[in-house]
Write a structure and sequence with these properties.
Family: Belongs to the cation diffusion facilitator (CDF) transporter (TC 2.A.4) family.
Shape: elongated
Strand content: 15-25%
InterPro entries: Cation_efflux, Cation_efflux_CTD, Cation_efflux_CTD_sf, Cation_efflux_TM, Cation_efflux_TMD_sf, CDF_Transporter
Number of helices: 12
Subcellular location: Membrane
CATH topology of the largest domain: Alpha-lytic protease prodomain-like
Keywords: Membrane, Transmembrane, Transmembrane helix, Transport
Order of helices and strands: HHHHHHHHEEHEHEEHHE
CATH superfamily of the largest domain: Cation efflux protein transmembrane domain
GO molecular function, one term: monoatomic cation transmembrane transporter activity
CATH architecture of the largest domain: Up-down Bundle
Distance between the termini: 38 Å
Helix content: 55-70%
CATH class of the largest domain: Mainly Alpha
Number of strands: 6
Strand order of the largest sheet: 1-2-3
Largest sheet: 3 strands, mixed
Radius of gyration: 29 Å
Length: 392
Amino acid sequence: MLSKFLVNTFIKDNNNTKEKKVRNKFGVLGGAVGIVVNLILVAIKVSVGLITGSIAITADGFNNLSDAASSIITIAGFKLSNMPADKEHPFGHGRIEYISSLIVSFLVILVGLEFVKSSAIRIFNPSKVDFEIIPFILLIVSILLKLWLAGFNRYIGNKIDSKALKAAAVDSLGDVFASTCVSISFLASKFTNFPIDGYVGVVVALIIVYSGVSLVKETLNPLLGEAPDPELVKELESLILSYPHITGIHDLIIHNYGPGRCMASVHAEIPSDMNIMEIHNIIDKAEREISQKLELYLVIHMDPICLSDDEIKVAYTEVSKIIKYNPLIKSMHDFRIVGEGDEKNLIFDVVVDSENLKKIMDEQALKNDIIEAIKELHPEYNCIITIDHDYT
């Protein structure tokens, strides 16, 4: 397989994809191969377009030129994102990779809009397209080249989990479809004088614009703050709960500062009657070991939980039953009773389904429903409820 051959030839330690230098080499290789392949395609398609007078083929050729420029930006993005952290950017420059992808996306849209205009002019002012067998064969070769490039970008994109390279793979597949349409229209020009070239040019141009818009959305998500990878969340939760005396976790938040650059914070529930130094050593060990294993920066906040008191145990069981049947509530944590005698505060947090909560009721209405149900059982409790949102 050519993709594996290129990776093994130019990246010696290619299985160590967590290493930033190795990851950077993958990005540079992907960009370099993209430049070479796309420049070859530009030479083929622009030549064929000029020889035959086809606006659709010429448009497709200039689309490949923008792809070559995109590959240059991709290389620059990987290089710049690998710069070390500094005073102004303590978490490094990893998000530059996303910004470079965004620039590429806008370039793709710009090229597409320009050729919508050119193709529309061709529809209203048609000119003859001369079909020739050699240019047609060259177009077929270009489709096969682009198909291979899509597979190559997908292969290395999956290997290092790069949004930029995965986006390039999707863009390449879009180009394969566009080039196939162009080739069909070129072949059809041999049998009809209808200005099919202009119409197909518009279709190809709109596909290019759509591809660019999709790439913008893909690269904006991590910049705006998308939900973390579910697999990372699951592994992080599993590792934290594997440490002794940590009975539960909540309020997990993961910030993405670029590929391989994450910061996570979480609240860990621990028995309130434990020695503070003993549990601190456990938490400190968990932070250090998990940070190293998952290559992120983890901060754990300790939440002491008392469930050995009979009154708390009874109240916890009763409140658990109340919230169990509410589909808007995902979980409950930080449960405690504060005060004595007739003045007791029942304090706890609930994690809600934020999206559905907004559709059905507001937070205060949800609190009132829970408080009303608790008051029926324990009118002596003053309920203090905090609504939490799930950020994973």
